[in-house]
Amino acid sequence: MSTPAKKAGAAMAAGPSATAVVDIDPATLPTTGAQAAALIRDVIAEPSAFGPGAVRRTPYEGDPRRWPVLGDDCVWHQQVLPKDVLATLTRSYEIPASGAKGPLRLSAVVTVHRNAEQADWENAEVLEEMMRCPAQRLRSDEVITSLNDVPSSLGDSGNEYADDVLTELGSYTSAEVGGPHPYLWGQTRIGQFTLAVSAKGSKGWSRADLFERLRDPHAGMRARLKASIERDTPKPGGSTKGDG
CB within 8 A of 237, min separation 6: which ones? Predict the structure, then answer.
């Protein structure tokens, strides 16, 4: 989840990471909305990335002209893209109910900001949102609660592949699947780009299952982005290492 608003309230990040884009050739970066949209379609995950049984949901793609904003009422609303975003795209997937397991709802989001500082603010706002609204309403019949965000910068907690990584854990309840069930969301920032995946659990799905389903599509998007912008992530000691 990310918003363009309330930057002043993002108390947990004073500014962009010191690693931001210093190792990226500016000539490889998109500068127009059309370039950013084309790059996103090269990077964002296909259903097969989420493993056996994953299919497109309907609608498969969100409106690229809008993105979600968390209101003061802790309810998510769609608003027009802010000027600092070149392009964004959300895709929705599902592993249908089978046997003892209910449906697993999945998503991927890729956003291209105009610069790394603006992308860093997006990450900071996620932390602000969690503190402001530990319970959030996604739709009229869907809510996530008990939210807890775990941030790690380059060099922290095994993060050797991105400027910043955020993992959000919580519980998910809906009219369709009941609950609470495990909820998981993860976001990576690489320069001016943010890549996110999420999973909303249901009967029979453990938190470990959600981590397993999101790991490969998230890593795959990072790898495709780095290939597109010809970047190697600098390790804190100064050498480079790709995303494994």
Answer: none
Q: Please, what's the b/e burial string for 30-44 (b: 16 or more CB within 10 A of its CB; e: otherwise)?
A: beeeeebbebbeebb
For 195-231, write each residue's pLDDT tens digit: 999 999 999 999 999 999 999 999 999 999 999 988 6
Distance CA 111, CA 20 (A): 16
Residues 6+ apart with CB under 8 A from 215: none
Identify whether the C-beta of residue 13 lies closer than 8 Å to the C-beta of residue 123: yes
Residues 62 and 64: their CA atoms lie apart, in Å, by 6
Q: How far apart are CA 240 and CA 244, in angstroms?
A: 12
Q: What is the pLDDT of residues 128-151, one digit of tens each?
A: 898 899 999 999 999 999 999 887
CA 184 to chain centroid: 10
What DSSP element (H or E) covers 40? helix 33-43
Using DSSP, state whether 33 is helix, strand or coil: helix
The neighbour count for residue 157, using CB atoms within 10 Å, is 10
Rounded distance, CA 39 to CA 231, Å? 14
Those residues with Cβ within 8 angstroms of residue 169's Cβ, 6 or more apart along the chain or in another chain: 147, 148, 149, 150, 182, 183, 184, 207
- Cα separation values, 26 from 15, 32, 110, 118, 163, Å: 21, 13, 19, 16, 17
pTM: 0.83
- Specify the amino acid at residue 156: D
